[in-house]
Amino acid sequence: MYEYNLIAEYTALMVLATVLISFFRDYEVRTLRYMFIKALYTITFISIVCTIVSTEMTAGSLRFGNLHIAYLLNGLYFISVPLVSALLMLYARVLADSTKGELTSIKQLLPTCIPFILYVIFVIIATPHNLIFSITMEHGYRRELLYFATFVIVSIYLVMMLTLMLKNLKEKNQEVVNVLMTTIGCWACLIIIQILVPEIVFTGIGNTMAVLIVHLYVQNVSKSSDPLTRTLNRIYLTQTLNDNIRKKKDFSFYVFSLRNFKMVNERYGLEIGDKVLMEVSAMLLEHFEFDNVFRYGGDEFAVLVYENSQEYDIKISKVLEKFRTSMSIYSHEVFIDIIYTRIDYPQFGHTVKDLISAADCSIKKLKDDTSGLDYLYDFSVVGEMIDKHNMVEKIKKSLDDDGLVVHYQPIYSAEQKCFVQAEALVRMKGDEGKLIFPGDFIELAETTGLIVRLTYRVLEIVCRDLRQLIDSNEKPENFDSVSINFPYLQFSSPEMIEKVMIILEKYDIEPSRIKIEITERMLISDSASIKNSIQVMMEKGFVFELDDFGIDYSNLSVLLDLPLNIIKIDRSLLLSALKNPENLKFFEHLIGGMKIINRKVLIEGIEEKEQLDFCVHAGGDLFQGYHFSRPIPFEQLKQIIK
Predict the structure, then answer these.
(1) Who contacts 72 (Cβ-Cβ below 8 Å, separation ≥6)?
(2) FRET label pair with 223: which of 250, 532, 565, 640, CA 20 to 30 Å apart?
(3) How many other C-beta atoms can be found within 10 angstroms of the C-beta atom of residue 166?
């Protein structure tokens, strides 16, 4: 009879108690994997309690109970110890199948359960006959002939895990291999130690360590889950796509986007908006497995499939059918307008970046479509993607190799009857001396953030040309400045004003010679921040123009609240004014209102003398358009302004 040392079990019990308190109180993730870990912790805790209580009872430390209770607790101990290893093997099997995109049925898991079921039957039969252990009042607890049956069953599961690990190692399924390797190594060491030092009980600490290993893995996976919708997120999707590409496995994924979600948030509030996202994820999880559903973006979800079978088509149809009906959320009837696309590997690209770009381009195409199209499966987006990639490379090359060209469109003053300024318009040098115009690259420059570097480069070219004009004594007295468009991203940098001033000081250009054009959309998006930057720059002498007035919201409060010098009226507003007498009157009063608040009015898009005459009569100050000149190179500008 051994004097058993339970210090390892008490240590494991304290560790488990601490983890369980934190786990049940703090963790809000309710994924299937976390539910599994919760069950494992609970079973392991019960197993250790049974071990400690039964050992203390049979050792005589606890003076309560009788032999029947002692037998019951020891029997539970022998059943619970290998139960953890059986559950971990089941988890490893399901994990292995899920990473391959396969579903595991109960029938497939049955062979894994058979050893444990047979072992439970054996314990139930062997315990009354004292084949595993015996307890007497005279001798206490004693190990009997078949005591090592527990280690045998655990060893069987270790062999099963080893076989599964080797199989997944061959299939390059590193995710499963890592979990199995650490679990096997941990248990193998503890079995050897337990055999060599039988008086110290290690089973509880062994099980605890094994569960903690799996928990750490699951916790790492939880970083890739979305707490609101309880689905996996885009990070985990990219990892999964990378794994599949590495294994050369064909797959497809659908991306669903809620076209009117912004309107739902604005109309009903963020709480109902969040509830809508939860309902959408629930709809998808109802038809697809947890490991196949991802929150792709703010109002977008992705579903990963591994074969384009009729079964998946039916599931997609069922999901769409549910979207076509309204949702009842907190007594509100909410309708969701959904658009979706399907991306195939390898047809749409050979890297995750290409596939994600194809999905994003497809969704953007659907959002821009006005014909009511809600589904897109179009290989042409790959060509568009390649074109965009090539254009981005051209922008970068132009920035690095002095490939930008600035043309100027002169601006005419009715009062001074001459050109008083010009607008700087950027082009890129293309192949064979051809120029690439802004419509082909400005939007891409904005989305990639290259617009910031581009704007500074344009400013430097303008300052260089202005300095040359001033030094040559060819500048007419009334020609005083050049206007440059500054995008929103330019103002987001706290170093913007400092960088602008460095460029101006390099060429000794006064700030008043630079008129900065900003758009109304930019002001509305972040008016407080932009207003602060404008005020600081105006104090330094810069002049600000509001560009494209009449295209966006035409918010009159912008004219009143912000210290703008010039309002630039878009050509579309001029053409609308010329349609009938009522519009003409409105146009005249609009300009009159701007003059009242001391704003100069620049009207662009003047192409005919009749338009110029009308605009002069309406009270316009400055005019720009093909009637005077198209955008021209700097050398031609010098000749025109003379």
Answers:
(1) none
(2) 250
(3) 12
Position 481 scores a pLDDT of 92
pLDDT for position 464: 95
Cα–Cα distance, 560 to 371 (Å, whole number): 38
In this structure, the number of other CB atoms found within 10 A of the CB of residue 207 comes to 30
What six digits make up the tokens of 19?
């983890």
Q: Answer whether 132's CB lies under 8 Å from 151's CB.
A: no
Question: Would you state the pLDDT for residue 218?
Answer: 57
- Look-up: residue for tokens 């049974």? 50
Torsion on CA atoms 385, 390, 391, 394, rounded to nearest 10: 160
Question: Which of 406, 411, 420, 424 has the alpha carbon at shortest distance from 627?
Answer: 411
What pLDDT score does 102 carry?
57
Phi, psi (degrees; rounded to nearest 5) at 286: -65, -30
**In the numeric block, which tokens belong to residue 361?**
């381009």
| Nearest residue to 358 via CA among 302, 280, 288 | 302
Angle at 93 between CA 34 and CA 205, to 5 degrees: 60
- Within 10 Å of residue 42's Cβ, how many Cβ atoms? 14
Q: Within 10 Å of residue 471's Cβ, how many Cβ atoms? A: 10
**Sheet strands (E) in 103-230:** 133-136, 140-143, 225-226
Report in angstroms the alpha-carbon separations of 329 from 57, 229, 277, 326: 57, 16, 11, 9
Burial (0-12, 13-18, 19+ Cβ within 10 Å), 57: buried
Round the average pLDDT of the chain to a whole number and report it: 82
pLDDT, residue 275, reads 87
Query: CA angle, corner 155, sides to 151 and 159, nearest 5?
Result: 175
Of residues 589, 586, 538, the one with CA closest to residue 566: 538
Query: Among 365, 338, 364, 362, which residue's Cα sits nearest to residue 264?
Result: 338
Angle in degrees, CA 586, 564, 588, rounded to 5: 15
**Could you tell me the mean pLDDT of each successive run of 10 residues in the chain, 642 residues long?**
68 77 57 67 80 69 61 81 81 69 68 89 89 75 81 86 84 70 75 73 71 65 69 86 87 89 82 86 85 88 82 83 79 83 90 90 86 84 82 92 94 92 94 88 90 95 94 83 91 88 95 89 66 87 84 61 81 87 88 88 92 91 94 93 82
Q: Establish how many alpha carbons lie within 13 A of residue 534's alpha carbon, considering only the half-sphere containing its beta carbon.
A: 25
Write the DSSP symbol of residue 56: H
CA-CA distance, 520 to 547, in Å (whole number)? 7
Taking the CA atoms of 393, 399, 404 and 410 in sequence, report the sign of the dihedral they define: positive
pTM of the model: 0.56
**Cα–Cα dist 266/264, whole Å:** 5
- What would the pLDDT profile of 144-169 be if each residue is shown by its tens digit? 888 888 888 888 888 888 888 888 78
Characterize 521-536 residue by residue with b for buried, 16 or more Cβ atoms within 10 angstroms of its Cβ, and e for exposed.
Answer: ebbeeebeebeebbee
Tokens 């930008």 correspond to: 404
